[in-house]
Structure formats: C-alpha cells, structure tokens
C-alpha cells in the first residue's frame, strides 16, 4: 500500500515550527497514527514525528524493530536526562545524511498513549536517542542544529550533491545551516 504522506524534508517551514499539544485523543488521531505507521515503514524509519508529515501536533510514532510493533507517544516530555554519548544519527527529513551527535545517554519520558493513559519510562540506547530526536522535531529542531561547524560544511556539501537540485533549494540549505553566502575572502572577509 502506498504511503499516505510525503515526508517533509529540510527547507519545509513546517519542520521549524513548534507543534502544539494534542488536546483530543480520538479516532481521528488513531487513524492518523495508522497512516503514519505506513509512512514510517515505507521509508524504513524507526520513528516519525507528526510535523514530518505536516501535522503540527505533539505526537510521534516509532518502532524499534524488536517485535513490539508500532507505538505512539502523545504530548511527550523529557523529565530527566543523564549521561552523554555519541550516536550515529539520521533523519527521514534529511535523506542520505548521518552524523555522530552527542546527547544525553538516557532520558526519562512521560506522555500519553492512544488510550489516554499516562505512560512513563526510562529510555536509553536506541530508544533514548529516538525519543530525543523525535522530541526535537516537535520543537522545530533538526539534526543539523546539533552539528559542529565542520559537520555543517559536510552536510551542506552532501545536500548539494544529493541535490534537491534547484538553486532555491541550495539557498534554503545555506539558510538552514546558518552559513553565510558571502565570500569568505576578499571584501566581505568575515574572520
Ligand atoms: Ni528526524
């Protein structure tokens, strides 16, 4: 079955907005989640946040591939975090890119499930990383915001190569990465 949604990619303003709390946990939301599962599986992703399919609401779907099946987490909050580790992270909204990103190694997460029950759990390893990554999406934060300058340059190069093609897309990448389009040398030398 074809995916019901196109995954939004870097440059789409919806990825940069803070999503609002889910207020109604109802059949409509459950149906949206079903559609998002399909989209996530088709893209071979482990997690998908609502803004990635253009829905500005605070929920995510995920599947760790451990046989538990797809999960939903609504209005998630990280209440505690501890440790620090690097993880080779990718994002369906940044196709083809992966980077070593440093984040807390374990987090405590609370939220709601589709039955409107409160859930709370500690997440480390892959789940911990996934939670932090998807929660970022709900706040309009993308993987590239965690990159250091060298990684940003590499990302920009890769994105140009993968080329989303048009010069508008390349300008969008410049803007997203916060890189100056002014020449580094000459009149506009900035450092
Ligand atoms: Ni992502």
From TrEMBL:
GO function terms (MF aspect): peptide deformylase activity
Protein name: Unannotated protein
Alphabetical list of Gene3D superfamilies matching this protein: Peptide deformylase
Similarity section: Belongs to the polypeptide deformylase family.
Taxonomic lineage from the root: unclassified sequences, metagenomes, ecological metagenomes
Pfam family, one: Pep_deformylase
CDD domains for the chain: Pep_deformylase
Classification via InterPro entries: Peptide_deformylase, Peptide_deformylase_sf
